[in-house]
Amino acid sequence: MRTLVSFALLREGERKIFISQMNEFLLASPKIRQRIVAEWREHAEGHRKAPAGRAGDCNTSGLL
Predict the structure, then answer these.
(1) What is the C-alpha radius of gyration for the chain, rounded to an integer number of angstroms?
(2) pLDDT over 70 percentage in the chain
(3) Which of 13, 25, 4, 26 shows the shortest CA–CA distance to 60?
(4) Residues 6+ apart with CB under 8 A from 7
(5) Do 13 and 60 form a contact (C-beta atoms < 8 A)?
(6) Nearest-angstrom CA–CA distance, 37 and 58
(7) What is the sign of the dihedral through the CA atoms of 42, 1, 8 and 16?
(8) Which of 34, 44, 54, 61 is deepest in the core (most CB within 10 A)?
């Protein structure tokens, strides 16, 4: 449920990015899905290590 609430709180542009990335994931082969998840994890790790306010993209919810 927290993920749905986070999605609902995204700005329109952030929602479009999320939906686009989710569609790419859902249509991908299992091997490509593994690569996508690895990329998402790397991106999330980068956000945790970045100084506050310097994450580098428009996502402020932590959902993407």
Answers:
(1) 13
(2) 77
(3) 13
(4) 15, 18, 63
(5) no
(6) 20
(7) positive
(8) 61
52 or 46, greater pLDDT: 46
Q: How far apart are the first and last CA of the chain?
A: 16
**Cα 34 from Cα 63, distance rounded (Å):** 18
CA torsion angle 15 20 24 26 (round to 10)? 50
Chain position carrying tokens 């580098």? 56
Query: Is the pTM of the predicted complex or chain greater than 0.70?
Result: no
Which helix (H) or strand (E) segment is 43 a member of? helix 30-49
pLDDT band at 18 (very low <50, low <70, confident <90, very high): very high
* Alpha-carbon distances of 6 from 15, 25, 35, 62, rounded to whole Å: 10, 19, 24, 8
